[in-house]
Write a structure and sequence with these properties.
124 residues; alpha+beta; 2 domains; three-stranded antiparallel sheet; two-stranded antiparallel ribbon; 5 strands; 37% helix; 27% strand; globular
Length: 124
């Protein structure tokens, strides 16, 4: 079982010296990774901060940056943050991402595998 994956950020993380880091690694999340941040007071005030804490726990490296803190995640460009969120979801779900779609022609609602939409395979 693969527990860590490599990624390349679309924009890259610029550190304080101005060096841009794009390649990194993310590991599989544990139950503790998902539970611990829920205790953080910042998450209680702002639920959106949960993703920052989750990513800082599972991203093990961005370029030469080996200590990926919440501040590093906060410093990412929005495109990179979104990229890591989607990678986290793909890596840590059981592959059964199901969504509900309504046909614009007949208004019939049905469930689809969302990975087929992302992969461009819907309807095959």
């Amino acid at each position: 079982m693969q527990t860590e994956v490599s990624f390349t950020l679309p924009k890259g993380y610029a550190d304080q010296a101005g060096t841009v880091h794009r390649d990194g690694t993310m590991r599989l999340a544990t139950a503790r990774d998902e539970i611990e941040p829920l205790r953080d007071p910042e998450v209680r005030q702002n639920e959106a901060y949960l993703t920052v804490l989750l990513l800082s726990r599972v991203v093990t490296r961005i370029g030469d940056v080996r200590e990926v803190s919440p501040e590093v995640i906060e410093g990412l460009y929005a495109a990179d943050f979104d990229h890591l969120q989607r990678l986290y979801e793909r890596l840590n779900t059981d592959g059964e991402a199901v969504g509900s779609i309504t046909c614009p022609s007949c208004s019939h609602a049905f469930e689809v595998d969302l990975s087929e939409i992302e992969d461009g395979r819907l309807g095959e």
